[in-house]
Structures are given as C-alpha cells and as structure tokens.
C-alpha cells in the first residue's frame, strides 16, 4: 500500500512512524516532510498548501491512501481534490474543515446547538466591534475569524488593549483576510484539556486526553507558541468529566455538523476549558494537534492506518481503538529566540530513538541541521506521569545542537493536580 502524508512537522513525523507499523504499507511519501522525516519516508519537495501539485503527485504515484495533517490544506479543500481523483483520505473535506477555518462559523454552530462555550458576539466592522467592547467585562478575548498560525487570539487585560487588538486585526490586517471578521468573547478560567477524537461522521472515539504548554517560558510565562510540550493523559480530565464532554460536547458537535450538511470525518480536536460552570469549548481544530500528537500516538496500541481508513469508509468502531494506560511526555526543543527571531543551521546530534519527532531540520549531506523554530519533540512513556517526564528529560540530555532551548517544567502543573 502506498501512503501519502501531507505536512512536514513533528506531528507528521509521529503519524508516519505509526503508519510504518502497518504491514501492508510498502511506501510512505511525505509532502514536503523534513530532514528527520527523511529517515522514515520519502520526502518530496511539494508544499503542504500546493494542492494542485499534491494531486498530480498522488495520481502519478497511484497513491492508495492520503493523510492530510495540517489545517491549511484541509481548509483549502485538499481532501475534496484527492477524493475527486478517487484517493481516499484521512481528514475532513472543505465543508467540514470550516469548523477550524472560521471561528465565526464554529461559535455560531455552538450557539445554535447549545454546545457550551464562552459567550460572544461576532463583527464584520470595526465600529460595531469597538462600541461592543465598551459593554464587555475585562479581560476580554478577541479572535480573528480565520487561520492565523495559532496567533489570532488576543487576551486583552485592559479596554485599551482590546481596542488596539480590534484595530490591528480589522484595520491594519495583521492577520490578513483572517481578520475581516472577528469574535469578541468572554474570558474563561480553568484548566485546559486537549481531546482529539477519531470520527467517521457517525461514530466518535476520543483518544487519550492531553495537556499542551503553549507559552515559551517556564511557569507559563513568555509569548504564545505553537506548543512547547505536552503530557498525556491530562489528570484534570477525570472519567466523569469525560462522560460529560461526550454527552454535552462531542456527540452534539458531530450531530450538528451532520445536520448542517458538513459531516466531519478524520480527527476532530476539542480544545476545552474546565470552568467552574463545567467544560466549555475554547476552540475546535479539524486535525491532530501539534505537539499533542507526539504524546497521544505513542500511547496508541492499535494500528493507526486501519483506524484512519475506517474513518474514511465509515466503519470506525470503538473496539479498534485501544490506548495504553501508561503516561507520555513530550518536550519540544526549539531554537533559542522562538517564537520570534532565531538562528538556524546548527548540526543536531541525537540517539536513534523511535520517539524523537523532528519538526524543523534539514539534511545537508548526511548531517541534520536545525532549520526552524521548533526543532524536534522528545517524547517518552512511563508507568506514571512522573516516570514519563523523567524519561523524556533524560533523553533531552542526549540531544545536542547549538542554540537549543526547551522548557524545564513540562508536566509539572499536571503532577501537582494528581
Ligand atoms: P486558540 O488559538 O484558540 O487555541 O487560543 C489560544 C489560547 O488562548 C487558548 O489555549 C487559551 O489558553 C486562550 N483562550 C482562548 N479563548 C479563551 C477564552 N475565552 N478565555 C480564556 N482563555 C482563552
Ligand atoms: N497544540 C495546539 C494545536 O495544534 O493547535
């Protein structure tokens, strides 16, 4: 079986390593992949957003199954285009990917179907948004409607900051057309949980829960990043909260999408906040999270490719999805300075390890050089969360590159919660 994976980060590396375990797989192509992924798949220099070239390549190579991992190609309709030439895919079509592609859409969906989320209003012009702000409690949250590389959310601590955010998004267009519309919403508090779920549109099977660490510095200080580390399972996410989420959030979302003529297939990501008034949705993503995937997939005991195929042909059932009851931790090693300015091009040396997932590195001959902000994710599992954390940091000590930076406290908040 020939499998194509669109994307080229740590998440894609984790997906590819798991797909490799399937004995029917003969070839894996990564578009574009990266220098680390090149050990596990054939990397082809086609950008993840270049749908025309992706389809051409898939057709020429007679690909049997495609996995579209990042948000951009999903929102642009990569799955629709691949399906059109007869290639089954893991991932939602364009109509369903809007659940991540438009925050105005997802907020309106939640309101219409009574799915718990922060109170909000949406706006398509600056004047109304500014007027509305005068009535809001502070802090208040401003979100650009469209994709913004995970940066389109501003938590304003004063009215002035909120006004500045509206002007910079809607007038100065700091996030481009993503800011033509905005959502202004209530500030919620409570622990955050990420829950990824497999779905074929009818059945939904949640994966093990996880916790991201989005800020650049220890103690959740510093700038927001794509994610500096993760742990799984998330200790705040108890069995009773999981049952409540299934009943009040997950299944209602699945039914809502179906009812809107936007049946969702693939991985639906629920970003949740456990507020004093119960779990609420902070955001939906139409894909695997990064770096959540780097702790969730190591704990998956079943065959990933079989599950992915079942989401596309409507045969998913919970018996084919089994997770280990161990814990996992992923420490992201980045270039110092990320998410702002940083230098790259430094040689990476690391042990041969099946749970080191490369994100920002390129090959130079047989040397691996840093090439991005998030360079790699070092994951490990353990019988307990504290073992998993220890094992991950022990491995980190054996990964070397100049200018390396990582948080020292991944999992500490979760340990305190236990
Ligand atoms: P997002 O890009 O939607 O994942 O948002 C980034 C982060 O902003 C989330 O992980 C939360 O920590 C925070 N956030 C988003 N919406 C809210 C909200 N309504 N109240 C409090 N924090 C929020
Ligand atoms: N780690 C958050 C995300 O993938 O959006």
Structure description:
- By secondary structure, the chain is α+β, with helices and mostly antiparallel strands.
- The chain has four domains: about 1-95, 3-Layer(aba) Sandwich (Rossmann fold); about 120-185, Dna Ligase, domain 1, CATH 3.30.1490.20; about 190-320, ATP-grasp fold, B domain (D-amino Acid Aminotransferase, Chain A, domain 1), CATH 3.30.470; about 325-415, Phosphoribosylglycinamide synthetase, C-terminal domain (Glycinamide Ribonucleotide Synthetase, Chain A, domain 4, Alpha-Beta Complex).
- Helix content is about 30%, strand content about 25%.
- The protein contains 13 helices and 23 strands.
- It has helices spanning about 10-20, 50-60, 70-75, 80-85, 95-100, 105-110, 125-135, 160-170, 240-260, 295, 305-315, 385-395, 410-415; strands at about 1-5, 25-30, 40-45, 65-70, 90, 120-125, 140-145, 155, 180-185, 190-200, 205, 210, 215, 220-225, 230, 265-275, 280-285, 325-335, 355-360, 360-365, 365-370, 375-380, 405.
- Strands 12, 15, 18, 19, 22 and 23 form a six-stranded antiparallel beta sheet that branches.
- Strand 1, helix 1 (about 10-20) and strand 2 (about 25-30) form a beta-alpha-beta unit.
- The longest helix has 21 residues, at about 240-260.
- The termini are far apart.
- About 50% of the residues are buried.
- The structure holds adenosine monophosphate and glycine.
- Adenosine monophosphate binds near residues 185, 186, 192 and 282.
């Amino acid at each position: 079986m020939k499998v194509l994976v669109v994307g080229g980060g740590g998440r894609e590396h984790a997906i590819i390593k798991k797909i490799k375990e399937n004995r029917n797989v003969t070839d894996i192509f990564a578009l574009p992949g990266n220098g680390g992924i090149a050990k596990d798949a054939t990397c082809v220099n086609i950008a993840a957003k270049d749908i025309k070239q992706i389809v051409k390549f898939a057709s020429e190579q007679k690909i049997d199954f495609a996995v579209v991992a990042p948000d951009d190609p999903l929102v642009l309709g990569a799955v629709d285009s691949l399906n059109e030439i007869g290639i089954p895919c893991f991932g939602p079509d364009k109509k369903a990917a809007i659940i991540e592609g438009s925050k105005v859409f997802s907020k309106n969906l939640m309101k219409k179907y009574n799915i718990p989320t922060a109170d909000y209003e949406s706006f398509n012009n600056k004047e109304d948004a500014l007027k509305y702000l005068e009535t809001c409690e502070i802090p208040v949250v401003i979100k650009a409607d469209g994709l913004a590389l995970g940066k389109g959310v501003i938590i304003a601590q004063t009215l002035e900051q909120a006004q500045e955010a509206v002007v910079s998004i809607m007038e100065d267009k700091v996030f481009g057309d993503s800011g033509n519309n905005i959502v202004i919403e209530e500030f919620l508090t409570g622990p955050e949980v990420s829950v990824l779920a497999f779905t074929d549109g009818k059945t939904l099977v949640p994966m093990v829960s996880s916790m991201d660490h989005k800020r650049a510095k220890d103690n959740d200080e510093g700038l927001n990043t794509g994610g500096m580390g993760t742990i799984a399972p998330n200790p705040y996410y108890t069995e009773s909260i999981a049952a409540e989420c299934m009943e009040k959030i997950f299944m209602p979302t699945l039914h809502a999408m179906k009812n809107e003529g936007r049946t969702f297939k693939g991985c639906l990501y629920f970003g949740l906040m456990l507020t004093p008034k119960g779990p609420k949705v902070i955001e939906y993503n139409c894909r695997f999270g990064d770096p959540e995937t780097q702790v969730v997939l190591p704990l998956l005991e079943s065959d990933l490719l079989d599950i992915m195929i079942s989401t596309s042909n409507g045969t998913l059932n919970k018996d084919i999805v089994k997770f280990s009851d161990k814990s996992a931790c992923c420490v992201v090693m980045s270039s110092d300075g990320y998410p702002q300015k940083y230098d790259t091009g430094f040689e990476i040396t690391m042990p041969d390890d099946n749970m080191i997932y490369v994100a920002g590195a390129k090959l130079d001959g047989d040397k691996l050089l840093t090439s991005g902000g998030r360079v790699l994710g070092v994951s490990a599992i353990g019988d307990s969360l504290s073992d998993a954390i220890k094992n991950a940091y022990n491995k980190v000590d054996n990964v070397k590159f100049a200018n390396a930076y990582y948080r020292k406290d991944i999992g500490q908040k979760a340990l305190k919660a236990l």
